[in-house]
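Whiteboard transcription, Tuesday session. T.W. wrote the structure tokens on the left side:
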């Protein structure tokens, strides 16, 4: 069976994805509880950095890829070039956690 070719002009994939992201940002803008939680999370990251602690991230599949991306941004750069490096981070994926616990 041949794959169906996607006609991007007809389906508006990009436009729909952008609209969803914009709507999400509007919801965050109007929800003070979410804003407060974002500020709390940012404060915790600042505390980890100031106290020279390590941020542990985990995930499985696509979420581990996102965790690795975030760790890279926080270690090397996130809007700013850092010298010395930023946060110390460690990313665990599903199988790494299993082996770590199993060995203990």
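and on the right, the sequence the group agreed on:
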């Amino acid at each position: 069976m041949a794959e169906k070719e996607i006609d991007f002009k007809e389906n508006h994939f990009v436009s729909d994805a952008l609209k969803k992201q914009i709507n999400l940002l509007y919801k965050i803008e109007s929800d003070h509880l979410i804003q407060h939680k974002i500020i709390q999370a940012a404060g915790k990251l600042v505390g980890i950095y100031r106290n020279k602690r390590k941020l542990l991230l985990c995930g499985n599949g696509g979420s581990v890829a996102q965790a690795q991306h975030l760790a890279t941004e926080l270690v090397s750069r996130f809007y700013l070039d850092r010298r010395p490096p930023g946060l110390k981070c460690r990313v665990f994926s599903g199988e790494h956690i299993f082996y770590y616990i199993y060995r203990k």
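Someone added at the bottom: Strands lie at 54-59, 88-93.
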